[in-house]
Amino acid sequence: MSIPDHTSTRHLVTAPAHDDDVRTLIDNAGLGDFPYRNIHQQERLATNLERWPLLSELANAGSEIDA
After folding, report:
1. What is the rounded distance in angstroms from the CA atom of residue 26 to the CA atom of residue 32?
2. Does residue 4 lie within any of the structural domains?
3. I need a labelling partner for 65 at 20 to 30 A (CA). Which of 3, 25, 42, 57 fits?
4. What's the pTM?
5. From CA 26, how far away is CA 20, in angstroms rounded?
6. Into how many domains does the chain fold?
7. Among 38, 12, 41, which Cα is nearest to 23's?
8. Which of 47, 41, 43 has the alpha carbon at shortest distance from 23?
9. Does residue 46 lie in a domain region?
């Protein structure tokens, strides 16, 4: 019995095509300054920041550097 090697498997995180579709619609309608917000992405980020405290610290450190 062999053990499968999963160490070389890479999972790329990409933005859903929906975001590109919405951005394309906004651009084609001439609403370039339309304040579109991806609510799902914001909720997912908030969940991940709660789940991984180090990620939250790094995000806060990055915002302090930008300020």
Report:
1. 6
2. no
3. 42
4. 0.49
5. 10
6. 1
7. 38
8. 41
9. yes
Give CA–CA dist 34/22, Å, rounded. Answer: 11
**Structural domain span for residue 56:** 19-29+37-66
63 vs 67: CA distance, rounded Å: 6
Is residue 23 within 8 A of residue 32, CB to CB? The reply is: no
- Do the Cβ atoms of 26 and 36 come closer than 8 Å? yes
48: which 2 tokens? Answer: 């991940």
Q: Which two tokens stand for residue 19?
A: 């975001």
- What single string gives the DSSP state of each residue in 30-65? T-TT-----HHHHHHHHHHHHH-HHHHHHHHHHHHH
Share of the chain above pLDDT 70, in %: 69
User: Mind listing the pLDDT tens digit for each residue in 20-34?
Assistant: 788 888 888 988 888
